[in-house]
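ARCHIVE CARD
SHELF: 3
SLOT: left
DATA:
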Amino acid sequence: MSVKLSALILLFLAFHQVLARNRTRPNFLVVMSDAFDGRLTFDPGSKVVKLPFINYLRELGVTFINAYTNSPICCPSRAAMWSGQFVHLTQSWNNYKCLDANATTWMDLLEVNGYLTKMMGKLDYTSGSHSVSNRVEAWTRDVQFLLRQEGRPVTQLVGNMSTVRIMGKDWENIDKATQWIQQRAESSQQPFALYLGLNLPHPYKTESLGPTAGGSTFRTSPHWLEKAGCYLVSSEQVTVPKWLPGAAMHPVDFYSTFTKNCSGFFTEEEIVNIRAFYYAMCAEADAMLGQLISALRETHLLNNTVVIFTADHGELAMEHRQFYKMSMFEGSSHVPLLFMGPGLMSGVEADQLVSLVDIYPTVLDLADVAPVGSLSGYSLLPLLSTCSSCPGGPHPDWVLSEYHGCNANASTYMLRSGRWKYIAYADGLRVPPQLFDMILDKEELHNVVFKFSEVSAQLDKLLRSIVHYPEVSAAVHRYNKESFVAWRHTLGRNYSQVISSLRWHVDWQRNPLANERAIDKWLYGSF
């Protein structure tokens, strides 16, 4: 046999090995929503609003009922998901400071290993984005002033019973993703990985507050609020959450309530409407997920596709007298995490504590791709499959979440372990910690940190073994000061005009000299 013929045979065999591997490796569809409360994906929260396509994943896949964000804000949370590392390791401190543009993600590794990859919709995991207000509010959170940064949460009803597509930008991306799936079915033998980032159910920007306004409008239509097909917000299930009186609130929670413009009076009707409108926005997001699942089914790709649904963080929706995220309370930190696909178990609710950093090693294990570098996350494949020889060791019995951005005036660290949620702040000395019994106190209204001092001490020791949080808090404090000084220097004589026109402008302009003095004391005083 000639050398040339032997080479051709080897090339032919290698080609067929690649084809065979491609046929056995699954496709991936990953849908990450924005601000979706994970408690709505299992009972009793799932009874509030019907979410048929999330329920479809529940019935045919695995639902993690104790899944948490690694940072309850958009960009740092996504940075953790894409990198597989805790945010203090990547220094993803706020919505402006996250991953470098050249950071290696699990999607990059899939592409290098033969996957056809596509990322669509909201990505938001690299540095440099979000508003000037957002970054300045994060940098100055240690300044001793109290300024409202967000618009008061409101509702807006649009359209009529036939108005389905409220979030036009998301629907446009869903249509593009649907078309992409159809094209893949017709033209490619490669396994694919498609990521789609949604804006929903994040509140909409409140246009009446001007160009610097954040998202404080909960917008939907009668279609999603009332019975429409299989969707129905159950008004009798929309409860008014209990609030602590202001004097009994933890100081960081009180700061968040004030800066989120929630310290004023709200009627019961306002609170119920905000919550109902939010649930209706979740139903619209569910319909978007449904269109992609239908596209996979119609193109005969569903049986070989792992579908993952999750979110960057949750939404408080007036729990604890707050909306938005930026908090370690369940509404903000608890996220959905559902898997469905070939070889995975069906109809299973897994109670293991997990977090978004676990997605990285799990996707790579499912694709038979080796990770690069050290990871904070653990593969969930042993929890997804009955395979006795699945890779990955036991998952630890804790999860970590941390927050260093705006609307909270101290770096915050949450350790969830067993029945407990332990929350430490700053250096562990200047701000008192919190401890909640998640079995007896699901509403997180009773801080038992002093009642169970031994438990608190044990959890604090465990937390410090995972992250030396006083050191991290000091690093964030230095970063905030240096970033603010550099920003102020670039503005020159325009500084006073610019800082007084940010989102806090109403409160700032009442006493600008006192606010400037507070900043100077923060910059040039002792830490």
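SLOT: right
DATA:
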Amino acid sequence: MKYILVTGGVISGVGKGVIASSLGTLLKSCGIEVTSIKIDPYINIDAGTFSPYEHGEVYVLDDGSEVDLDLGNYERFLDITLHRDNNITTGKIYKLVIEAERRGEYLGRTVQVIPHITDAIQEWIERVAQDPVRDNITPEVCIVELGGTIGDIEGMPFVDAFRQFQFRVKRENFCVAHVSLVPSPSSTGEPKTKPTQASVKELRGFGLSPDLIVCRSEEPIGIEVKEKISNFCHVAPDQVICVHDLSSIYHVPLLMEQHGVIEFLKERLQLSIRPEKRENCLQRWKSLARRSEKLHKQVTIALVGKYTKFKDSYDSVIKALQHAALQVGYKLKLNFIYSELLESETLTEDPSNYHKVWQLLCESDGVVVPGGFGSRGIEGKIIACKWCRENKRPLLGICMGLQAAVIEFARNVLNLKKANTTEIDPTTEHPLVVDMPEHHSGEMGGTMRLGKRKTIFKGELSIVKQLYGNPQSVDERHRHRYEVNLKYVNQLEEQGMRFVGVDESGERMEIVELQNHPFYVATQYHPEYLSRPLKPSPPFLGLILASVKGLSKYIARGCHLSPRQMSDASSDEEIQMTTKINTSKLNGHSEHLQQANGCIVNGAGSSSEAELITASNGKSNGVA
């Protein structure tokens, strides 16, 4: 087994996750089986109880474990299926050691960080590295990302564990890639290498010498900077890899390949790479990068949520939208809308932002209402669902988005004005959404309905079923504690809200579709977790197609994209998209426009906080 340790210096969030995923992509493209481990030095057992504002979204694996979003990057880049133990935390390690001590396994010895904690870390890594993550094949290389930055007190036991580990597995089986920031202050306009020098010096002081130094910067770095880092950090110039901000993360593996990373790893780790594999490697990524650069048509999607101030809170949703848009041949523009600003109270308290977010919603070709917890912003999500239903705008609701759509329909179609979820109002007169008793154990962490579960399609005709290829069932990942109240299902279906997918018991509603609407779909599960660059999630693909008025043609064609759509061509013959707001788009919001008295036009969605142009149209989607 070969190991590649990826560490970070200077600042957190420097792009270690994308670099680690790119290293894996390079090796996998050469026919080498790769697995990944993410180490998070925080004391939490897992990421399940985190606010999205802490570390971004909580990513859910097949086995129901709630983990760091970087494991989502690994799964998407490498197309593998990771497990609970592929995410290590300080909490897990200490819990393991303390439980062993309570069982008397240390035979009365004093339990210490060295050797007991560090030994537990090494044994965990060796064990998990052998676990298959694809087709029951044992991996050959394990890439380990150490979260945080070198020097953080929380990470010290892990750093020392790897200091010992390099001798445990021998030098030819272990290498270190250190990711560091090379800033360019506006006052000087030139790259500064001192932060990287200090970071590498600190890493070497802890007993680890970097084999590769990956320099992150806003702009490309010249050869003289590479040579300076080489001289002061005791590595050869070809071991200094410069990765600047790119228009798309699909370009990162290609840039690293151009720097000779494959040849270096082959020699350093004594890897066996067949010549024919080397010649054909990365063809998929080159095609993806080429397509992403040649997109000219644009589709605008509004993401209506409560955590929109921190885009990583919806990382998998954003990636799934990008995958679907790229597949259809469109450049994605996202309008991030803080759901609470859509509520009527905001018109009095903050009219400027109220009109801005309503304009962003009106400008969008389609809408996503993702998951969330708690009362804040829920009414705004319900309002967004109402607007999409009444104005025939494509909508995809996810988890709480499904619950919001059901509550809105009950209030305004069934005339159950007090309809609500017991999460918000435990004494509501009409509990359309209720908790699942078996998932309320009194503890918050790891007690929801989690992981991959089966959804069975009913026999009736369904858009979602056709998007999946007309199977009898699908397996998707879940993360929820509340569900639609079975008592109201018949009333909802009588008025046109169809529950086309249920769980294996037939009592939990999984997929809802609205009749006589271009695309009004919501799922209780999270389809974004299984979306891949070359295999977009079917619900997201349906949303994008409906948003560019191409869904009916796609279904009529047997759910196959036309050759023109699959090509790099930018012709609009197959799918027409309107890029300007027309009068019909604004009719459904006439009352808000009348209240604006010109404010909406002046407040057009130009706010950098409100929108993000992704994929090939901005740096926001690059390594950051």
